[in-house]
Amino acid sequence: MAFLAEPVSTLPGLGGIKAALLRAELGIVTVGDLLEHYPYRYVDKTLIRTIRDVLDQPDTTLVQGVLSPFQYQGIGHKKRLIAYMRDDTGTLELVWFKSGKIIESVLQPGTAYTAYGKVQRFRGKATMVHPEMEPVRSETAQTQLTFDPIYSSTEG
Fold first, then answer.
1. Domain that holds residue 12
2. pTM
3. Residues 92 and 144 in one domain
4. What is the distance of C-alpha 113 from the center of its chain?
5. Is pLDDT above 80 for 92?
6. pLDDT tens across 46-89, in order?
7. Does residue 136 lie within any of the structural domains?
8. How far is CA 120 from CA 58, 76, 128, in A?
9. Residue 49: beta bridge partners?
10. Which of 11, 18, 117, 140 is deepest in the core (most CB within 10 A)?
């Protein structure tokens, strides 16, 4: 298996700078090293919980509901984009402190989404800050539920 002994820099899209970073930060030198770089844990995104269930037990979780229209709150460096996700059991506040215009252009109010993130209590409200959002494809089909791998990474 000579290919496994080749330097990672021989792979398309992985040039000298990225190869040097992989070598310095993760000890990955060869294609074989890269293939054997396994995740150190997995995030379970297979269970969609109701909003009511996450209101009393803040944790990182996956919820599904319909997105409300956006609104901005605050001014200057305290400005944030707010939306609400609703399901049959309750309402969850979604907050983005950065990239508000991009979020508004990508997400459509009135559409069903899944949101993944840490639920926190803030001023008596259940809030999810910078959630990972994915549209629900149809009334009968849910988003693809997965176990997402988490790899050690570099700061660069």
1. 2-37
2. 0.69
3. yes
4. 13
5. yes
6. 788 888 888 777 678 899 999 999 999 888 888 899 999 999 99
7. yes
8. 6, 24, 6
9. 63
10. 117
